[in-house]
From TrEMBL:
Residues 142-277 form the Glycerol-3-phosphate dehydrogenase NAD-dependent C-terminal domain. It comes from the Eukaryota. It comes from Cetraspora pellucida. This is Glycerol-3-phosphate dehydrogenase [NAD(+)]. Its EC number is 1.1.1.8.
Length: 281
């Protein structure tokens, strides 16, 4: 919280595809209101691009040439490689970085670690469409795992009917899983943007679908395709399904979640991709 009369200082932690998109929004918004300091520092994991530091390229070109090429970043957004420098004296922290372990909401992790109030912002949306200022809604869901299933179907060229069946099965398993472990959630939530809308958007347009399709076509492992196709972005669906399977195995619930289990086995245990249709449909 700021002192009386002081202005809010926003710090952005993360500068990948989504982080850069958010920097465009925050950088523009802070200039519209007197309550905010004009400069926004954005933490960048330093990389070398064609012999130049990524932070230098962003600050000179006002564009993230690696993760969001072709979209201007406001000049009041400053790329900084030192995390402590970025968060120093900040009153609002915006986290936009990949989660790498566990299925706990990141809002809970941040709240417990920093003892601060947290709000979450996510799907159903795709980063580049937000960058293009297209309409979007924002909430949260289990979309990335189902998107991998949709991408597998696309790679197998099984058609839209099969893909629709996979999306339906995934949606039902998402609902059952969340209700099983978070019984207080309302049924209506699943039919808002965080539920079916997020599932559909990412199953047809997200990075998880894209990489899963290539996984089927090329036979290359997901971690290799992540490096080849995403140019430093992270693939969340495989991490999430691994954590889901860990929970299901520990609880003895794999038979209750056949699609999630099949996607895990295809991704990590060598189960043939065609099994997604044979075992589920």
């Amino acid at each position: 919280m700021t002192k009386e009369g002081a202005r809010e200082k926003v710090a952005l932690i993360g500068s990948g595809n989504w982080g850069t998109v958010i920097s465009r929004i925050i950088g523009g918004n802070v200039t519209k209101y007197n309550e905010f300091q004009q400069e926004v520092k954005m933490w960048v994991f330093e990389e070398i691009i064609n012999g130049r530091k990524l932070t230098d390229l962003i600050n000179e070109k006002h564009e993230n040439v690696k993760y969001l090429p072709g979209f201007a970043i406001p000049e009041n957004v400053k790329a900084v490689p030192d995390l402590l420098d970025v968060v120093n004296d900040a009153t609002i922290l915006v986290f936009c970085i990949p989660h790498q372990a566990g299925i706990r909401p990141m809002s809970e992790v941040i709240n417990k670690s920093l003892s601060i109030s947290v709000c979450s912002l996510s799907g159903a949306n795709i980063a580049n469409e937000i960058a293009e200022e297209k309409f979007s809604e924002t909430t949260i869901g289990f979309n990335n795992v189902i998107a991998i299933g949709g991408g597998i179907v696309d790679g197998l060229k099984l058609g839209e009917n099969t893909k629709a069946a996979i999306i339906r099965s995934g949606f039902l398993e998402m609902k059952k899983f969340i209700k099983w472990f978070y019984s207080g959630i309302k049924d209506e939530t699943f039919f808002e943007s965080c539920g079916i809308a997020d599932v559909i958007a990412t199953s047809y347009g997200g990075r998880n679908r894209k990489v899963a399709e290539s996984f089927v076509i090329t036979g290359k492992p997901f971690d290799q395709l992540e490096k080849e196709l995403l140019q430093g972005q992270k693939l969340q669906g495989t991490l999430t399904v691994k954590e889901i399977n860990r929970v299901l195995s520990r609880k003895g619930l794999n038979d209750e979640f056949k699609l999630f289990t099949t996607i895990y086995r295809i991704a990590f245990e060598g189960l043939p991709p065609k099994s997604i249709a044979e075992d589920i449909i």
